[in-house]
Specification:
Length: 699
């Protein structure tokens, strides 16, 4: 018997205990152990029934994701589950923690299911680009009906145990805290009532209604925007409704394999593991963060108010400092408005809202109110002078050990830190707008930042339910520095003949949440205009300048907030429509520059955009601004709308082939060898026949 699955017997009931920490994933040893355990149960005259429990904090959280893409090792999970179901003695699965994916499928192979309070169940395979491939798509519809099954399978959501009981996924929810005790009590009752075995495979499937399936297919295909797993899940469930059980299983396995072999699966699993690895930095091993309960926020504008609200929602005490009473009152009003919105959407109770805004928050003007805060986030205007003045004041009032953070987008944090007597406590915490919604937090480490301060940044991100990425100091850190370059590639394509609408469309079709021009309209065109003006004096004469963008700004068209930008937003619409006047401006600027426009197809647009992005990312990794390629991937996935199923730009580059990307860059360099300068790291990796992923495991 494998060590990962232990069997003991209590009162003629076998306890099959899966012990594969941390989440009892169904690795080969667990599958073998489960199979052997059922054999023992079936052949022992001393056993009348069995319960399957998970050791530690959870039942089984699914197949072992790290095995996907490697040669399969027997026994296959579907066979193990069929073996459990075939047992002649009642088998009870006891679900605590999270029973997910293959874990829930094991439970569906059992004859009865008991849930513990607080447990959640789900079939999240779709989020990894696959489908429940161990009978989930065949058994779940038989158990809960087509709509409930498709809802779970195509969304991957974690269903709270009370809802799972209502749906009929579990037979009962036990009050016991201990899974073994709950399972033994339930199994004893099954035996006392002589209820015997009960197999989902023997249940009739729900009737097949083609119209219902067509609706689901249309709905998930639209939402999936290029992802193949969701509609394939619908196909698998359709098989459950029309085929005998065994044939349905075979069809499920066939569909599973097509998804398993797809690059989308590779991209999504890379995203899954990278999201977990991103916070594991060798430099933070064994470093304790400083405790943070009270924070200060300086500036209550777009970012400051969002950061303050996010902190309040996550139980921190917040003191906000503004320039004068009016601005403080305005900031307090913004935060009340955000809180009211949350109450309206059912995210916050009125009572909780009143406590957060009334007791845990205050907006004032006197920096003395910050004397006992543990951490401050500065979010004032993007001006070195203003920020340095703020940090001088913070240095004077904050207690020793308080972390002093800036939310600057581009400025040199070393210069800001130099204004204080404690540069070791100064760090960048770069939030994204809207700060209470966007997941990404760049933790920007300056020259003298102490390791505990970096650890505190990561711990704060966890408190705020954000994904933190470590970045070094440079103009724009990881994300905005890349954005400047891939946006420039898009601008060059416009100068040469593409339209903003064609570029946006090509990139949305590629999978981006939005195209770069729609993004600019959302963020405000004035930001880029100010940056161009700031950089004009130091600009290299070889740099191509998107003068058309300045012309648009000169008209006062700053995007959505002014009703006009690259797109027109009529009557406050949030989705813009193409603007012929913008195209006219672009045409005029091309003529002024003597450019004869040429046609671009969508493929070339994507190749240029991605090559620019990947090349800059390679420079960022080479310079140590991002420690690993995965840090770049997570930045783009969680802050810049990069399609998750492509894994991030570095993973995408690996999948396309670095030699292909480099060859594109060299081709483009023939017309503009100033912009298209290949990154040294990219050249090195191509020369070695290696890839970005090879750098993800270096400590
Ligand atoms: C599946 O089940 C497919 C099936 O349909 C079977 C198909 C077979 C078909 C065969 C046909 C022939 N595997 O997240 P945390 C690691 S697909 C391996 O920080 P939490 C994780 O990397 C699976 N490792 O903890 C981390 O490692 P580290 C469906 C897994 O408490 C550590 O565990 N299931 C793993 O915040 C802790 O994880 C899912 O998608 C796995 N399945 O959250 C569930 N799961 O310490 C995925 C976790 O080295 N997991 N790890 O960094 C989760 O959603 C979360 O981990 C939990 C816990 C909610 C379980
Ligand atoms: P904003 O103009 O909306 O707000 C700035 C606020 O700071 C104003 O309310 C102003 O009254 C206040 N302020 C100015 N000087 C102050 C002082 N000395 N003391 C106290 N309050 C003062 O600006 P924003 O968009 O919130 O940007 C703030 C910072 O966040 C900037 O550094 C910006 O680069 C950065 N940032 C902005 C975004 C974004 O999308 N807007 C995203 C990430 C980071």
């Amino acid at each position: 018997m494998s060590d990962l699955v232990r069997v003991s017997v209590t009162d003629r009931i076998a306890v099959i205990r899966v012990a594969n920490p941390p989440v009892n994933a169904l690795s080969q040893g667990v599958r073998q152990g489960l199979s052997d355990a059922i054999e023992t149960v079936d052949t022992s005259a001393d056993i009348d029934a069995a319960i399957i429990v998970g050791d530690g904090r959870t039942f089984i959280a699914g197949a072992d994701i790290s095995e996907f893409g490697k040669p399969p090792q027997p026994p296959a999970l579907p066979d193990v589950i069929n073996r459990i179901e075939a047992s002649m003695k009642p088998i009870v699965a006891v679900l605590h923690g999270t029973a997910l994916g293959g874990g829930l499928e094991v439970a569906l192979g059992a004859h009865y299911r008991v849930g513990l309070k607080g447990a959640r169940v789900g079939l999240p395979e779709v989020t990894l680009g696959i489908l429940p491939g161990a009978g989930g798509t065949q058994r779940m519809p038989r158990l809960v009906g087509v709509d409930a099954a498709l809802d779970m399978i195509t969304s991957g959501r974690h269903v709270p145990i009370a809802e799972a009981e209502k749906l009929g996924i579990v037979d009962t929810v036990s009050d016991e805290a201990d899974p073994e005790a709950a399972g033994l009590a339930f199994a004893a009752k099954i035996l006392a009532d002589d209820r015997g075995v009960r197999r989902i495979r023997d249940m009739d499937p729900p009737a097949k209604d083609d119209a219902v399936l067509a609706d689901w297919r249309a709905k998930v295909t639209k939402a999936a925007r290029g992802q193949i797993a969701p509609p394939t899940c619908v196909d698998a469930v359709a098989a459950a409704l029309s085929l005998p059980f065994e044939d349905g299983l075979a069809e499920e396995r066939r569909l599973f394999k097509t998804l398993l072999d797809s690059p989308q699966r590779e991209g999504l699993i890379h995203a899954f593991f990278s999201e977990r690895k991103v916070a594991k930095l060798p430099e933070l091993k064994g470093v304790e963060p400083r405790p943070v309960a009270k924070i200060g926020v300086i500036g209550g504008g777009t970012m400051g108010a969002g950061i303050a609200f996010c902190a309040l929602l996550n139980e921190l005490d917040v003191t906000l400092i503004e320039r004068d009473q009016d601005a403080a009152a305005k900031a307090a009003g913004t935060i009340s408005g955000l809180a009211d919105g949350s109450v309206k959407r059912g995210k916050l109770t009125q009572e909780k809202r009143d406590a957060l805004v009334g007791k845990s928050f205050r907006a004032v003007t006197d920096y003395a109110a910050l004397s006992d805060v543990d951490l401050v986030v500065e979010a004032v205007f993007e001006s070195m002078e203003v920020k340095q003045d703020v940090f001088t004041k913070l240095d004077a009032v904050c207690k020793p050990g308080a972390v002093l953070a800036t939310n600057t987008s581009y400025l040199d944090i070393d210069e800001i830190a130099a204004m204080t007597s404690r540069p070791q406590d100064v760090i960048g915490l770069h939030f994204f707008s809207p700060a209470h919604i966007m997941k990404l937090l760049e933790v920007v480490v300056a020259d003298k930042t102490a390791p505990e301060v970096v650890a505190t940044g990561f711990a704060l991100a966890k408190t705020l339910k954000k994904i933190a990425v470590r970045a070094g100091v440079c103009d724009g850190f990881i994300g905005n520095r890349m954005l400047a370059v891939y946006r420039a590639a898009a601008d060059h394509m416009i100068l040469d003949g593409a339209s903003p609408y064609q570029i946006d469309k090509a990139l949305v079709n590629f999978g981006f949440a939005m195209g770069p021009f729609a993004v600019s309209d959302l963020a405000g065109l004035d930001i880029g205009w100010a940056t161009r003006k700031r950089r004009a004096a130091t600009r290299d004469p070889r740099e191509r300048v998107p003068t058309y963008a300045d012309r648009i700004c000169e008209n006062g068209w700053f995007g959505q907030k002014t009703g006009r930008g690259y797109y027109k937003y009529e009557d406050g619409a949030r989705k813009g429509t193409p603007d012929p006047e913008v195209e006219q401006i672009v045409a005029e600027e091309r003529a002024k520059l003597g450019i004869e426009p040429r046609a671009f197809d969508d493929e070339e647009i994507v190749r240029r955009y991605m090559a620019a992005m990947i090349n800059e990312a390679a420079k960022i990794v080479d310079e140590g601004i991002a420690k690993r390629p995965l840090d770049v991937d997570i930045t783009l996935l969680s802050g810049y709308g990069f399609p998750r199923w492509r894994g991030g730009p570095m993973k995408y580059a690996d999948m396309v082939g670095l030699d292909t990307v480099l060859s594109d860059i060299r081709t483009f360099a023939k017309e503009d060898d100033y912009f298209w300068r290949p990154a040294r790291l990219l050249e090195d990796l191509v020369a070695k026949g290696s890839n970005f992923d090879s750098l993800n495991n270096e400590d």
